[in-house]
Amino acid sequence: MAHLERCVGGIVFDDQGRLLLIRRANDPGKGQWSLPGGRVEPGETDHEAVVRELREETGLDVRPHTLAGSVVRGAYDIHDYECTWTGGILTAGDDASDAQWVNSAELVNLDEAGHLVDQLLITLRDWNQVPTA
User: Fold this and answer.
1) Mean local confidence (pLDDT), 93-102
2) Structural contact between residues 83 and 62, judged by C-beta atoms closer than 8 angstroms
3) Burial 39-74 (b: 16+ CB within 10 A, else e)
4) Mean pLDDT of 16-21
5) Of 10, 29, 77, 115, which has the most beta carbons under 10 Å away?
6) What is the pTM of this model?
């Protein structure tokens, strides 16, 4: 079996129940909306990687806690964690060309328009991680 690259993502909701998404600046999924996250660096824990990646991509400080679920997408073994937003100002950076909070209707619209990374909405629904707004 080919080696899978371990990656993490953060599932973050604001105080209005909206979900944090980023538009990917690079492949895979360039131009599509996804959860913020990225590769786990050597010597890093998943939680350390989530904190670093979300700060780099969104400008936000988060505290990761429960593992929401894991998926394999191509060569990537992705572990997505529920996170609490603790500070920072939302600003797209690093591998993100845009970052924003989306409500449930906006998330569905992005999916129907083909602007979400493959299977994201289905996966979030399976994990009970859709916006309440």
Assistant:
1) 93
2) yes
3) ebeeebebbebbbbbbbebbbbebebeeebbebebe
4) 98
5) 10
6) 0.94
